[in-house]
Design a protein that fits this description.
With 128 residues, the chain is mainly α. The protein is 82% helix and 0% strand. It has one domain (3-123).
Length: 128
């Protein structure tokens, strides 16, 4: 299977599942923000983000101006997020505190749209 197709399925389904779970269990949003105040949690998340980002970049570092660049950007963003969280956990906690959980609700819809877009690239539900 082509790496672009595989990762589009992975990220697409991941984003749809994440969106759905946050919609069904909105109290999880506040819990996530509370957990991020714990430096140990930040370190664990940073390791996971570094691993996921590296795997994504190694498998798919394609810089073309089509839908595949979204997958590459997800990989790089995930890797950079993991490195930042690991190297500067106190800074990350301060930035997360500034980002009120109320703003997170505005990010849920774009998450859903990116997920649907990636899955549409794989399954061709809507031709455009």
């Amino acid at each position: 299977m082509d790496a672009s197709i595989f990762l589009a399925k992975f990220w697409g389904w991941y984003l749809i599942i994440y969106f759905t779970l946050l919609l069904v269990y909105p109290k999880r949003i506040k819990q996530l923000f509370e957990y991020t105040k714990d430096e140990k949690f930040i370190i664990i998340i940073s390791f996971l983000a570094i691993i996921l980002g590296l795997l994504n970049i190694i498998a798919h570092n394609i810089w073309v101006l089509d839908w595949r660049i979204i997958i590459t950007l997800f990989g790089w963003f995930t890797l950079l997020k993991g490195i930042t969280l690991f190297a500067f956990p106190t800074f990350a906690i301060k930035m997360i505190d500034r980002f009120d959980s109320k703003w997170f609700h505005f990010l849920i819809f774009p998450i859903f749209v990116f997920g649907i877009f990636l899955l549409n690239q794989v399954y061709h539900w809507v031709q455009f």
